[in-house]
Amino acid sequence: MRIFFHFGRYFILMKRAFGKPEKFSIFINRCFEEMNLLGVGSLGIVAIISVFMGAVITIQSAFNFESPLIPLYAVGVAVRDSMILEFSPAIVSLILAGKVGSSIASEIGTMRVSEQIDALEIMGINSAGYLVLPKIVASVLFFPILVIFSMFLGILGGYVFGLMAGVVSNYEYIYGITYEFRPYNVIYALIKSGVFAFIIASVPAYHGYYTSGGALEVGRSSTKGVVYSSVLILAFDLILTQLLLV
Amino acid sequence: MIQINNISKSFSGRNVIDDISFTFETGKTNMIIGESGSGKTTLLKCMVGLNDIDSGQILYDGRSFTELNFNEKKDVRKEIGMLFQGGALFDSKTVEENVVFPISMFTDMSESERRDRANFCLQRVNLHNANNLYPSEISGGMKKRVAIARAIAVQPKYLFCDEPNSGLDPKTSIVIDNLIKEITDEYHITTVVITHDMNSVIEIGDHIMFIYKGNKHWEGSKQEILKTDDPEVCDFVYATKFMRDLKSKF
User: What ipTM was estimated for this complex?
Assistant: First the structure.
Protein backbone atom coordinates (compact mmCIF):
# COMPACT_ATOMS: atom_id res chain seq x y z
CA MET A 1 0.00 0.00 0.00
CA ARG A 2 2.98 2.27 0.62
CA ILE A 3 3.58 2.50 -3.13
CA PHE A 4 0.18 4.20 -3.62
CA PHE A 5 1.09 6.75 -0.94
CA HIS A 6 4.32 7.63 -2.78
CA PHE A 7 2.58 7.58 -6.14
CA GLY A 8 -0.08 10.02 -4.94
CA ARG A 9 2.39 12.31 -3.21
CA TYR A 10 4.64 12.32 -6.29
CA PHE A 11 1.74 13.46 -8.49
CA ILE A 12 0.72 16.13 -5.97
CA LEU A 13 4.31 17.43 -6.03
CA MET A 14 4.30 17.42 -9.85
CA LYS A 15 0.97 19.28 -9.91
CA ARG A 16 2.48 21.94 -7.65
CA ALA A 17 5.73 22.01 -9.62
CA PHE A 18 3.87 22.65 -12.88
CA GLY A 19 2.01 25.61 -11.41
CA LYS A 20 2.45 29.07 -12.92
CA PRO A 21 5.91 30.45 -12.03
CA GLU A 22 5.96 33.51 -9.73
CA LYS A 23 8.03 35.47 -12.20
CA PHE A 24 8.68 34.24 -15.70
CA SER A 25 12.03 36.01 -16.12
CA ILE A 26 13.37 34.37 -12.95
CA PHE A 27 12.03 31.00 -14.09
CA ILE A 28 13.86 31.30 -17.45
CA ASN A 29 17.08 32.25 -15.66
CA ARG A 30 16.69 29.27 -13.33
CA CYS A 31 16.20 26.95 -16.33
CA PHE A 32 19.44 28.17 -17.92
CA GLU A 33 21.29 27.83 -14.61
CA GLU A 34 20.06 24.24 -14.31
CA MET A 35 20.95 23.47 -17.94
CA ASN A 36 24.46 24.63 -17.17
CA LEU A 37 24.69 22.67 -13.92
CA LEU A 38 22.93 19.45 -14.91
CA GLY A 39 23.56 19.37 -18.65
CA VAL A 40 26.80 21.15 -19.52
CA GLY A 41 28.30 19.82 -16.28
CA SER A 42 27.67 16.26 -17.50
CA LEU A 43 29.32 16.64 -20.90
CA GLY A 44 32.65 15.28 -19.64
CA ILE A 45 31.35 12.06 -18.13
CA VAL A 46 29.03 11.45 -21.11
CA ALA A 47 31.94 11.95 -23.52
CA ILE A 48 34.24 9.52 -21.69
CA ILE A 49 31.58 6.83 -21.32
CA SER A 50 30.40 7.14 -24.92
CA VAL A 51 33.86 6.90 -26.48
CA PHE A 52 34.69 3.81 -24.44
CA MET A 53 31.30 2.19 -25.06
CA GLY A 54 31.73 2.68 -28.81
CA ALA A 55 35.26 1.29 -28.68
CA VAL A 56 34.26 -1.78 -26.69
CA ILE A 57 31.26 -2.55 -28.91
CA THR A 58 33.50 -2.33 -32.00
CA ILE A 59 36.13 -4.69 -30.64
CA GLN A 60 33.61 -7.15 -29.17
CA SER A 61 31.56 -7.19 -32.39
CA ALA A 62 34.64 -7.78 -34.52
CA PHE A 63 35.70 -10.58 -32.16
CA ASN A 64 32.27 -12.24 -32.42
CA PHE A 65 31.80 -11.77 -36.19
CA GLU A 66 34.49 -14.28 -37.06
CA SER A 67 32.32 -16.20 -39.50
CA PRO A 68 33.21 -15.47 -43.16
CA LEU A 69 29.46 -15.32 -43.83
CA ILE A 70 29.15 -12.12 -41.83
CA PRO A 71 30.66 -9.12 -43.61
CA LEU A 72 32.99 -6.95 -41.54
CA TYR A 73 30.91 -3.84 -42.16
CA ALA A 74 28.40 -5.45 -39.78
CA VAL A 75 30.71 -4.12 -37.04
CA GLY A 76 29.79 -0.57 -38.07
CA VAL A 77 26.10 -1.50 -38.21
CA ALA A 78 26.31 -3.06 -34.74
CA VAL A 79 28.05 -0.04 -33.24
CA ARG A 80 25.63 2.42 -34.84
CA ASP A 81 22.47 0.56 -33.84
CA SER A 82 23.70 -0.33 -30.36
CA MET A 83 24.66 3.27 -29.65
CA ILE A 84 21.53 4.85 -31.13
CA LEU A 85 18.95 2.35 -29.95
CA GLU A 86 20.17 1.50 -26.48
CA PHE A 87 23.55 2.60 -25.21
CA SER A 88 23.25 6.35 -25.72
CA PRO A 89 19.68 6.84 -24.49
CA ALA A 90 19.51 4.14 -21.80
CA ILE A 91 23.03 3.58 -20.46
CA VAL A 92 23.87 7.29 -20.52
CA SER A 93 20.58 7.96 -18.74
CA LEU A 94 21.49 5.41 -16.07
CA ILE A 95 24.83 7.14 -15.62
CA LEU A 96 23.08 10.52 -15.42
CA ALA A 97 20.60 9.10 -12.91
CA GLY A 98 23.60 8.46 -10.68
CA LYS A 99 25.36 11.76 -11.26
CA VAL A 100 22.51 14.22 -11.72
CA GLY A 101 19.91 12.32 -9.66
CA SER A 102 22.04 12.20 -6.53
CA SER A 103 22.93 15.86 -6.96
CA ILE A 104 19.25 16.87 -7.27
CA ALA A 105 18.10 14.74 -4.32
CA SER A 106 20.91 15.90 -2.03
CA GLU A 107 20.54 19.57 -3.02
CA ILE A 108 16.79 19.66 -2.41
CA GLY A 109 17.09 17.37 0.64
CA THR A 110 19.67 19.67 2.23
CA MET A 111 17.46 22.66 1.50
CA ARG A 112 14.59 20.85 3.23
CA VAL A 113 16.45 19.91 6.41
CA SER A 114 18.09 23.34 6.70
CA GLU A 115 14.65 25.00 6.43
CA GLN A 116 15.49 26.76 3.15
CA ILE A 117 12.36 25.28 1.54
CA ASP A 118 10.30 26.48 4.51
CA ALA A 119 11.84 29.93 4.00
CA LEU A 120 10.68 29.90 0.37
CA GLU A 121 7.17 28.84 1.41
CA ILE A 122 6.99 31.55 4.07
CA MET A 123 7.94 34.14 1.45
CA GLY A 124 4.89 33.03 -0.51
CA ILE A 125 6.90 31.23 -3.18
CA ASN A 126 5.75 27.91 -4.62
CA SER A 127 8.89 26.01 -3.59
CA ALA A 128 8.12 23.03 -5.82
CA GLY A 129 7.71 25.30 -8.83
CA TYR A 130 10.82 27.28 -8.01
CA LEU A 131 13.10 24.32 -7.28
CA VAL A 132 11.78 21.32 -9.20
CA LEU A 133 10.28 22.66 -12.44
CA PRO A 134 13.48 24.33 -13.77
CA LYS A 135 15.37 21.07 -13.19
CA ILE A 136 12.74 19.09 -15.11
CA VAL A 137 12.60 21.59 -17.98
CA ALA A 138 16.40 21.83 -18.18
CA SER A 139 16.79 18.04 -18.15
CA VAL A 140 14.07 17.35 -20.72
CA LEU A 141 15.49 19.97 -23.07
CA PHE A 142 19.19 19.27 -22.58
CA PHE A 143 19.47 15.49 -22.07
CA PRO A 144 18.42 14.69 -25.67
CA ILE A 145 21.32 16.94 -26.75
CA LEU A 146 23.61 14.89 -24.51
CA VAL A 147 22.26 11.72 -26.10
CA ILE A 148 22.96 13.01 -29.63
CA PHE A 149 26.44 13.98 -28.42
CA SER A 150 26.87 10.49 -26.96
CA MET A 151 25.77 8.79 -30.21
CA PHE A 152 28.25 10.82 -32.19
CA LEU A 153 31.15 10.20 -29.79
CA GLY A 154 30.30 6.51 -29.40
CA ILE A 155 30.39 5.92 -33.14
CA LEU A 156 33.52 8.05 -33.44
CA GLY A 157 35.16 6.14 -30.56
CA GLY A 158 34.33 2.86 -32.25
CA TYR A 159 35.89 4.12 -35.48
CA VAL A 160 39.11 5.36 -33.89
CA PHE A 161 39.66 2.35 -31.63
CA GLY A 162 38.53 -0.08 -34.35
CA LEU A 163 41.18 1.30 -36.70
CA MET A 164 43.81 1.45 -33.98
CA ALA A 165 43.14 -2.18 -33.01
CA GLY A 166 43.07 -3.16 -36.64
CA VAL A 167 39.78 -5.07 -36.30
CA VAL A 168 37.97 -3.14 -39.02
CA SER A 169 38.96 -1.04 -42.01
CA ASN A 170 38.09 2.57 -42.64
CA TYR A 171 35.85 1.69 -45.63
CA GLU A 172 34.02 -1.16 -43.88
CA TYR A 173 33.26 0.88 -40.77
CA ILE A 174 32.00 3.93 -42.72
CA TYR A 175 29.96 1.68 -45.00
CA GLY A 176 28.55 -0.12 -41.96
CA ILE A 177 27.41 2.97 -40.12
CA THR A 178 25.61 4.29 -43.21
CA TYR A 179 24.15 0.93 -44.27
CA GLU A 180 20.33 0.98 -44.19
CA PHE A 181 20.27 3.82 -41.71
CA ARG A 182 16.78 4.52 -40.29
CA PRO A 183 16.35 8.10 -39.09
CA TYR A 184 13.34 6.95 -37.03
CA ASN A 185 15.77 5.16 -34.70
CA VAL A 186 17.20 8.55 -33.70
CA ILE A 187 13.69 9.92 -33.07
CA TYR A 188 12.93 6.84 -30.97
CA ALA A 189 16.12 7.42 -28.97
CA LEU A 190 15.28 11.09 -28.43
CA ILE A 191 11.74 10.27 -27.24
CA LYS A 192 13.23 7.75 -24.80
CA SER A 193 15.83 10.23 -23.57
CA GLY A 194 13.12 12.86 -22.99
CA VAL A 195 11.12 10.45 -20.85
CA PHE A 196 14.23 9.31 -18.99
CA ALA A 197 15.23 12.95 -18.39
CA PHE A 198 11.85 13.58 -16.78
CA ILE A 199 12.37 10.57 -14.51
CA ILE A 200 15.97 11.55 -13.66
CA ALA A 201 14.90 15.05 -12.61
CA SER A 202 11.54 14.39 -10.97
CA VAL A 203 12.06 11.18 -8.97
CA PRO A 204 15.18 12.31 -7.05
CA ALA A 205 13.55 15.75 -6.62
CA TYR A 206 10.57 14.00 -5.02
CA HIS A 207 12.81 12.09 -2.62
CA GLY A 208 14.80 15.21 -1.78
CA TYR A 209 11.69 17.35 -1.31
CA TYR A 210 10.17 15.02 1.26
CA THR A 211 13.35 14.44 3.25
CA SER A 212 12.90 14.78 6.97
CA GLY A 213 15.56 14.62 9.64
CA GLY A 214 19.22 15.41 9.12
CA ALA A 215 22.33 14.60 7.12
CA LEU A 216 21.76 10.84 7.33
CA GLU A 217 18.31 11.16 5.79
CA VAL A 218 19.65 13.40 3.02
CA GLY A 219 22.05 10.58 2.10
CA ARG A 220 19.21 8.05 2.20
CA SER A 221 17.03 10.26 -0.01
CA SER A 222 19.86 10.59 -2.47
CA THR A 223 20.32 6.81 -2.62
CA LYS A 224 16.57 6.23 -2.98
CA GLY A 225 16.36 8.83 -5.72
CA VAL A 226 19.10 7.13 -7.74
CA VAL A 227 17.81 3.59 -7.19
CA TYR A 228 14.16 4.34 -8.00
CA SER A 229 14.97 6.49 -11.02
CA SER A 230 17.31 3.77 -12.37
CA VAL A 231 14.63 1.09 -11.95
CA LEU A 232 12.04 3.33 -13.60
CA ILE A 233 14.41 4.05 -16.50
CA LEU A 234 14.80 0.32 -17.13
CA ALA A 235 11.04 -0.26 -16.85
CA PHE A 236 10.20 2.61 -19.21
CA ASP A 237 12.95 1.47 -21.57
CA LEU A 238 11.08 -1.80 -22.00
CA ILE A 239 7.67 -0.13 -22.26
CA LEU A 240 8.79 2.48 -24.79
CA THR A 241 10.66 -0.10 -26.88
CA GLN A 242 7.53 -2.19 -27.01
CA LEU A 243 5.40 0.82 -27.91
CA LEU A 244 7.68 2.56 -30.38
CA LEU A 245 9.69 -0.17 -32.08
CA VAL A 246 7.65 -3.35 -32.16
CA MET B 1 -2.61 41.98 14.66
CA ILE B 2 -2.67 38.20 14.67
CA GLN B 3 -5.30 36.31 16.61
CA ILE B 4 -5.26 32.58 17.21
CA ASN B 5 -8.44 31.00 18.49
CA ASN B 6 -8.58 27.54 20.05
CA ILE B 7 -5.76 26.07 17.98
CA SER B 8 -5.03 22.37 18.37
CA LYS B 9 -2.51 20.19 16.62
CA SER B 10 -1.60 16.56 17.12
CA PHE B 11 0.96 14.23 15.57
CA SER B 12 0.11 10.51 15.42
CA GLY B 13 -2.63 10.95 18.02
CA ARG B 14 -0.37 12.87 20.43
CA ASN B 15 -1.59 16.39 21.24
CA VAL B 16 1.26 18.84 20.75
CA ILE B 17 -0.83 22.02 20.79
CA ASP B 18 -4.01 21.94 22.80
CA ASP B 19 -6.69 24.62 22.45
CA ILE B 20 -4.46 27.72 22.50
CA SER B 21 -5.91 31.21 22.04
CA PHE B 22 -3.87 34.40 22.05
CA THR B 23 -3.71 37.85 20.49
CA PHE B 24 -0.40 39.06 19.07
CA GLU B 25 -0.58 42.82 19.07
CA THR B 26 0.71 45.15 16.36
CA GLY B 27 3.78 47.22 17.18
CA LYS B 28 4.68 44.94 20.07
CA THR B 29 7.22 42.19 20.54
CA ASN B 30 5.08 39.19 21.44
CA MET B 31 7.05 36.41 23.05
CA ILE B 32 6.18 32.72 23.15
CA ILE B 33 8.21 31.04 25.85
CA GLY B 34 8.37 27.56 27.30
CA GLU B 35 10.58 24.56 27.87
CA SER B 36 12.07 22.62 24.96
CA GLY B 37 9.41 20.30 23.55
CA SER B 38 6.52 22.34 24.94
CA GLY B 39 5.16 23.05 21.43
CA LYS B 40 6.47 26.56 20.73
CA THR B 41 7.92 25.87 17.28
CA THR B 42 4.93 23.72 16.30
CA LEU B 43 2.62 26.61 17.23
CA LEU B 44 4.70 29.00 15.12
CA LYS B 45 4.71 26.59 12.16
CA CYS B 46 0.93 26.28 12.49
CA MET B 47 0.58 30.06 12.51
CA VAL B 48 2.54 30.53 9.29
CA GLY B 49 0.90 27.53 7.61
CA LEU B 50 3.90 25.21 7.49
CA ASN B 51 1.83 22.78 9.58
CA ASP B 52 -1.92 22.36 9.13
CA ILE B 53 -3.93 22.74 12.31
CA ASP B 54 -6.50 20.16 13.45
CA SER B 55 -8.94 22.77 14.72
CA GLY B 56 -9.16 26.45 15.54
CA GLN B 57 -8.73 29.68 13.65
CA ILE B 58 -5.81 31.99 12.74
CA LEU B 59 -6.67 35.57 11.85
CA TYR B 60 -4.21 37.94 10.17
CA ASP B 61 -5.81 41.36 10.61
CA GLY B 62 -9.20 39.72 10.39
CA ARG B 63 -8.34 37.39 7.46
CA SER B 64 -8.96 33.79 8.43
CA PHE B 65 -5.74 32.14 7.25
CA THR B 66 -7.06 28.60 7.59
CA GLU B 67 -10.02 29.30 5.31
CA LEU B 68 -8.00 30.92 2.52
CA ASN B 69 -7.19 29.02 -0.69
CA PHE B 70 -3.61 28.34 -1.81
CA ASN B 71 -3.19 31.61 -3.73
CA GLU B 72 -4.79 33.73 -1.01
CA LYS B 73 -2.48 32.12 1.55
CA LYS B 74 0.47 33.02 -0.69
CA ASP B 75 -0.66 36.65 -0.62
CA VAL B 76 -0.72 36.65 3.19
CA ARG B 77 2.68 34.97 3.28
CA LYS B 78 4.13 37.77 1.17
CA GLU B 79 3.41 40.00 4.17
CA ILE B 80 5.34 37.69 6.50
CA GLY B 81 9.03 37.86 7.30
CA MET B 82 10.58 34.98 9.17
CA LEU B 83 13.83 34.50 10.97
CA PHE B 84 14.56 30.79 11.26
CA GLN B 85 16.57 29.19 14.05
CA GLY B 86 19.47 28.38 11.73
CA GLY B 87 18.99 31.40 9.51
CA ALA B 88 17.81 29.28 6.53
CA LEU B 89 19.89 31.37 4.15
CA PHE B 90 20.23 30.04 0.61
CA ASP B 91 23.65 28.36 0.48
CA SER B 92 24.14 28.94 -3.22
CA LYS B 93 23.59 32.71 -2.97
CA THR B 94 25.81 35.42 -1.53
CA VAL B 95 24.69 37.60 1.37
CA GLU B 96 23.51 40.32 -1.00
CA GLU B 97 21.78 37.83 -3.32
CA ASN B 98 19.93 36.37 -0.32
CA VAL B 99 18.51 39.80 0.53
CA VAL B 100 17.84 40.69 -3.12
CA PHE B 101 15.95 37.42 -3.65
CA PRO B 102 12.53 38.35 -2.15
CA ILE B 103 12.78 41.83 -3.71
CA SER B 104 13.32 40.29 -7.16
CA MET B 105 10.44 37.91 -6.63
CA PHE B 106 7.83 40.37 -5.47
CA THR B 107 8.69 43.79 -6.85
CA ASP B 108 9.29 45.28 -10.28
CA MET B 109 12.33 47.26 -9.13
CA SER B 110 15.26 47.65 -11.50
CA GLU B 111 18.48 45.82 -10.72
CA SER B 112 20.12 48.93 -9.23
CA GLU B 113 17.03 49.68 -7.11
CA ARG B 114 17.04 46.11 -5.83
CA ARG B 115 20.68 46.33 -4.87
CA ASP B 116 20.11 49.70 -3.19
CA ARG B 117 17.24 48.28 -1.17
CA ALA B 118 19.31 45.20 -0.21
CA ASN B 119 22.23 47.40 0.86
CA PHE B 120 19.88 49.59 2.88
CA CYS B 121 18.55 46.50 4.70
CA LEU B 122 22.06 45.13 5.28
CA GLN B 123 23.19 48.46 6.69
CA ARG B 124 20.05 48.58 8.83
CA VAL B 125 21.20 45.37 10.52
CA ASN B 126 24.73 46.78 10.80
CA LEU B 127 26.26 44.39 8.31
CA HIS B 128 28.95 46.02 6.24
CA ASN B 129 31.41 44.61 3.70
CA ALA B 130 29.84 41.16 3.67
CA ASN B 131 27.78 41.47 0.48
CA ASN B 132 29.84 39.06 -1.56
CA LEU B 133 30.38 36.43 1.12
CA TYR B 134 28.50 33.13 1.13
CA PRO B 135 26.55 31.94 4.20
CA SER B 136 29.24 29.32 4.88
CA GLU B 137 31.80 32.12 5.19
CA ILE B 138 30.05 34.19 7.88
CA SER B 139 29.47 33.73 11.62
CA GLY B 140 26.23 32.64 13.31
CA GLY B 141 25.44 36.18 14.44
CA MET B 142 26.01 37.54 10.92
CA LYS B 143 23.74 34.84 9.49
CA LYS B 144 20.96 35.96 11.84
CA ARG B 145 21.46 39.56 10.76
CA VAL B 146 21.35 38.60 7.08
CA ALA B 147 18.18 36.62 7.79
CA ILE B 148 16.64 39.69 9.46
CA ALA B 149 17.70 41.86 6.51
CA ARG B 150 16.07 39.36 4.14
CA ALA B 151 12.94 39.26 6.28
CA ILE B 152 12.51 43.04 6.24
CA ALA B 153 13.52 43.48 2.59
CA VAL B 154 9.95 43.60 1.33
CA GLN B 155 8.62 45.48 4.39
CA PRO B 156 6.57 42.74 6.05
CA LYS B 157 3.56 43.37 8.28
CA TYR B 158 4.34 40.35 10.44
CA LEU B 159 7.73 39.17 11.66
CA PHE B 160 8.24 35.69 13.13
CA CYS B 161 11.47 34.78 14.89
CA ASP B 162 12.19 31.18 15.88
CA GLU B 163 14.74 31.22 18.70
CA PRO B 164 16.75 34.14 17.28
CA ASN B 165 19.42 33.78 19.98
CA SER B 166 20.13 30.07 19.72
CA GLY B 167 23.83 29.40 19.35
CA LEU B 168 24.86 33.01 19.94
CA ASP B 169 27.00 34.49 22.70
CA PRO B 170 25.22 36.77 25.22
CA LYS B 171 26.54 39.98 23.68
CA THR B 172 25.50 39.08 20.12
CA SER B 173 22.15 37.85 21.49
CA ILE B 174 21.45 41.30 22.88
CA VAL B 175 22.40 42.89 19.54
CA ILE B 176 19.93 40.63 17.73
CA ASP B 177 17.23 41.20 20.37
CA ASN B 178 17.59 44.96 20.14
CA LEU B 179 17.52 44.79 16.36
CA ILE B 180 14.23 42.88 16.45
CA LYS B 181 12.79 45.40 18.90
CA GLU B 182 13.97 48.40 16.86
CA ILE B 183 12.53 46.96 13.64
CA THR B 184 9.22 46.24 15.36
CA ASP B 185 8.96 49.82 16.57
CA GLU B 186 10.28 51.38 13.37
CA TYR B 187 7.98 49.55 10.95
CA HIS B 188 5.13 49.10 13.45
CA ILE B 189 4.83 45.40 12.66
CA THR B 190 3.44 42.45 14.58
CA THR B 191 6.43 40.54 15.88
CA VAL B 192 6.27 37.04 17.32
CA VAL B 193 9.42 35.70 18.96
CA ILE B 194 9.90 32.17 20.20
CA THR B 195 12.56 31.83 22.83
CA HIS B 196 13.57 30.09 26.01
CA ASP B 197 16.10 32.78 26.79
CA MET B 198 14.86 34.82 29.76
CA ASN B 199 17.36 37.59 28.98
CA SER B 200 15.52 38.18 25.69
CA VAL B 201 12.17 38.15 27.43
CA ILE B 202 13.28 40.79 29.93
CA GLU B 203 15.09 42.81 27.25
CA ILE B 204 12.44 43.07 24.54
CA GLY B 205 9.26 41.21 25.60
CA ASP B 206 6.08 43.31 25.53
CA HIS B 207 3.45 40.60 25.68
CA ILE B 208 4.37 37.12 26.82
CA MET B 209 2.69 33.72 26.51
CA PHE B 210 4.06 30.78 28.49
CA ILE B 211 3.35 27.37 26.96
CA TYR B 212 3.46 24.31 29.15
CA LYS B 213 2.95 20.80 27.74
CA GLY B 214 1.15 22.15 24.68
CA ASN B 215 -1.23 24.41 26.62
CA LYS B 216 -1.21 28.14 27.13
CA HIS B 217 -0.40 28.21 30.80
CA TRP B 218 0.14 31.89 31.45
CA GLU B 219 0.16 35.28 29.72
CA GLY B 220 1.19 38.74 30.79
CA SER B 221 3.87 41.41 30.63
CA LYS B 222 7.57 41.12 31.51
CA GLN B 223 6.94 42.91 34.78
CA GLU B 224 4.20 40.43 35.64
CA ILE B 225 6.23 37.36 34.78
CA LEU B 226 8.90 38.33 37.32
CA LYS B 227 6.29 38.64 40.07
CA THR B 228 4.07 35.67 39.30
CA ASP B 229 3.73 32.87 41.84
CA ASP B 230 2.69 30.27 39.28
CA PRO B 231 4.93 27.26 40.06
CA GLU B 232 5.49 26.18 36.43
CA VAL B 233 6.32 29.71 35.28
CA CYS B 234 8.61 30.23 38.31
CA ASP B 235 10.33 26.92 37.57
CA PHE B 236 11.06 28.17 34.06
CA VAL B 237 11.94 31.80 34.84
CA TYR B 238 14.04 30.99 37.89
CA ALA B 239 15.61 27.83 36.53
CA THR B 240 19.16 28.94 37.25
CA LYS B 241 20.69 29.37 40.71
CA PHE B 242 21.65 32.93 39.77
CA MET B 243 18.04 33.86 39.05
CA ARG B 244 16.82 32.15 42.24
CA ASP B 245 19.39 34.05 44.29
CA LEU B 246 18.32 37.27 42.55
CA LYS B 247 14.69 36.59 43.35
CA SER B 248 15.41 35.91 46.99
CA LYS B 249 17.17 39.27 47.30
CA PHE B 250 14.13 41.18 46.10
Answer: 0.86
